[in-house]
């Protein structure tokens, strides 16, 4: 560590102690722009034997409990590096050199598990339903599954997952270590949009190191330092994947790709189903090429949404359109010249007693409905009483049935009716 970097850290430590309460907000606003100070603090944290490590950890904890939102985020940006330093020291069995880091992690944990009144917090997470649209999917594209989910959602069967209350811890042990670290990483992921690029780079690097240390891939990655295997839990790896997924779309494609491959490598060795499921889902959703997103631009995940279309076409045939079409045809004027020229067939009106528009030919007269019914009944009776006249009565009966069918359908031919 250079003398200039050490002097910047010492100045930062003394400046906050003499800072009045009224100027705390302005100090927090200007602090995030001091990139040289942030890099110097990273170097202090990475040196467990540094004499500045204990006062730096103490001041970061004072930032966190000050109540100022920007000071709280300033401390959170160092959380991945603090977790890596603690795990590395714990794996080397040199617990005494990590006392101040452990105290800082425990202090942040105990502050986060309670609200302002000191009561234990219970976090709730509502699992999204596939029947409701989001920026990731549309229910209509899922098919029959969307109908099933929609039916379930109407009955209010939304699943809510609760986390907490979490017990307070006075020290980190092998039993509660990853319970505390998983919760701290959850708090870090809740503020991912406010984290600078240097913090996202640190997250990707420590995820790779935690997953490959002590395994053959460590020589491929050329990670020096400790060679002991660092135990991890399934929930801790899932929280690491959450931050890595964000880093993919915020300017850290290469480091995030490397960290994702290392997490899949470690999850396969440990046979953890949850990290494997999440990691493979993240890998399958990534675009084929690297994201060229700006580090200073808007941070978001780009999703292509298919346009929605109406279920019924504008030109679809409905009962109302058919009914309106019939009314238009009946309302047309009865002009034989126009219809002959245009070639439009006008449906003639049908009378109850007479068939209008039927042209008589060969001396035939128009028959009334009563006469047709009478003849029909007479033909049926004659056919039933005298079987010998069955062949003679068939043409007449067929003719009568055809005329009745034409009357019922409302269609009449302008020429002679053919039988």
Considering the chains and any ligands shown, give keywords for the structure.
419 residues, two-stranded antiparallel ribbon
Order of helices and strands: HHHHHHHEHEHHHHHHHHHH
Number of helices: 18
Helix content: 40-55%
Overall geometry comes to: globular
Please state the structural category: mainly alpha
What can be said about the biggest beta sheet? Answer: 2 strands, antiparallel
Report the β-strand fraction as a percent range.
Answer: under 5%
Q: Can you give the mean pLDDT?
A: 75
Low-confidence segments: 294-299, 336-348, 350-369, 380-392, 413-419
Give the number of DSSP strands: 2
Q: End-to-end distance, in Å?
A: 112 Å
Q: What order do the strands of the largest sheet run in, or round the barrel if closed?
A: 1-2
What can you see in these coordinates?
The protein is about 55% helix and about 0% strand. Helix 7 crosses helix 9. The termini are far apart. It has a two-stranded antiparallel sheet with strand order 1-2. With about 425 residues, it is an all-alpha fold. It contains 18 helices and two strands.
Lay out the secondary structure.
Layout: H1 3-17, H2 24-31, H3 35-45, H4 53-64, H5 69-76, H6 79-91, H7 99-112, E1 123-126, H8 144-154, E2 160-163, H9 177-190, H10 197-212, H11 217-221, H12 234-248, H13 253-270, H14 273-285, H15 319-330, H16 336-342, H17 369-385, H18 390-409
Antiparallel strand pairs: 1-2
């Amino acid at each position: 560590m250079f003398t200039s970097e050490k002097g910047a850290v010492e100045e930062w430590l003394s400046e906050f102690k003499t800072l009045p309460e009224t100027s705390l907000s302005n100090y927090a606003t200007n602090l995030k722009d001091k990139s040289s100070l942030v890099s110097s603090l990273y170097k202090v944290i990475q040196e467990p034997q540094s004499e500045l490590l204990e006062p730096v950890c103490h001041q970061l904890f004072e930032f966190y409990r000050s109540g100022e939102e920007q000071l709280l985020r300033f401390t959170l940006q160092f959380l991945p590096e603090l977790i890596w330093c603690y795990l590395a020291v714990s794996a080397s069995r040199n617990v005494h050199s990590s006392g101040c880091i452990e105290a800082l992690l425990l202090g942040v944990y105990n502050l986060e598990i309670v609200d302002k009144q000191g009561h234990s917090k219970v976090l709730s997470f509502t699992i999204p339903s596939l029947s409701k649209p989001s920026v990731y999917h549309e229910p209509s594209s899922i098919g029959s599954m969307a109908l099933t989910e929609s039916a379930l959602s109407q009955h209010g069967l939304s699943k809510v997952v609760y986390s907490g209350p979490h017990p307070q811890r006075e020290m980190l042990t092998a039993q509660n270590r990853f319970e505390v670290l998983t919760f701290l990483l959850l708090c870090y992921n809740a503020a991912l949009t406010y984290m600078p690029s240097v913090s996202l780079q640190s997250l990707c690097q420590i995820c790779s190191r935690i997953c490959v240390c002590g395994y053959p891939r460590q020589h491929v990655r050329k990670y020096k330092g400790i060679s002991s295997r660092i135990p991890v839990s399934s929930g801790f790896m899932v929280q690491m994947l959450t931050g890595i997924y964000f880093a993919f779309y915020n300017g850290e494609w290469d480091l995030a790709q490397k960290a994702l491959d290392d997490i899949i490598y470690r999850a396969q060795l440990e046979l953890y189903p949850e990290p494997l499921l999440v990691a493979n889902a993240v890998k399958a959703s990534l675009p084929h090429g690297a994201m060229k997103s700006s580090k200073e631009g808007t941070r978001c995940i780009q999703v292509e949404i298919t346009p929605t279309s109406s279920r019924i076409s504008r030109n679809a045939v409905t009962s109302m359109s058919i009914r309106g079409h019939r009314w238009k045809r009946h309302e047309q004027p009865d002009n034989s010249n126009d219809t002959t020229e245009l070639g439009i067939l006008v449906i003639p009106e049908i009378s109850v007693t007479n068939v209008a528009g039927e042209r008589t030919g060969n001396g035939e007269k128009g028959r009334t409905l009563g006469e047709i019914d009478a003849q029909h009944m007479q033909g049926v009776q004659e056919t039933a009483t005298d079987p010998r006249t069955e062949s003679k009565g068939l043409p007449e009966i067929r003719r009568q049935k055809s005329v009745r069918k034409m009357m019922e359908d409302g269609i009449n031919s302008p020429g002679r009716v053919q039988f």
